Structure formats: C-alpha cells, structure tokens
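Researcher: We're reviewing a set of sequences before deciding which ones to prioritize for further study. For each one, I'd like a predicted 3D structure that I can look through quickly. This is XRE family transcriptional regulator. If possible, include the structure in token form so it fits the rest of the review sheet.
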Amino acid sequence: MQFTMRAVRVSCGYAEDEVARYCGVSTETINELEIDSGQIDYNLLSKLINLYGVPLDIIYLGSETDSHQKHRNDPRVTF
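Model: Here's the predicted structure for XRE family transcriptional regulator, in token form for your review sheet.
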C-alpha cells in the first residue's frame, strides 16, 4: 500500500510550514509537491523520508489525483 505525500505528512502530524522550514523550501513548493510528486528532487525526497520516518516504498510518487482514483474503493487505506 502506498500513500500520497500529503497523507503521510498529515498522518505524521506536520503542518506544511513546518515541513517547508525543515526542508529549506517554501510552503508553495511543499503544496505543489503534494499535488504531484512525480518529479521530486532526490535531496528533497530524502529530507522528507527522514523527517517522516517512513520507508520510501510506502510513498506514492506521482499525481495525488491519480493516487486517489487508484485507492478510492480500497478499504485498507488508513491515512
């Protein structure tokens, strides 16, 4: 099961501005990344994984809309 960047952030209890500060980017960058993480910079991805404390394989890299369509009827989604 994979989860969007937004779902992981919210589940970990972080606000966008906290994540942006930690990563050294703007909140706009975090918001754009959460909408579509398909082209994320490796260094930023590494910072996010470290902050969230999750393995890379649970993070869905791509469009948030595509992820929602893929999992909308999956009862196992817990984020």
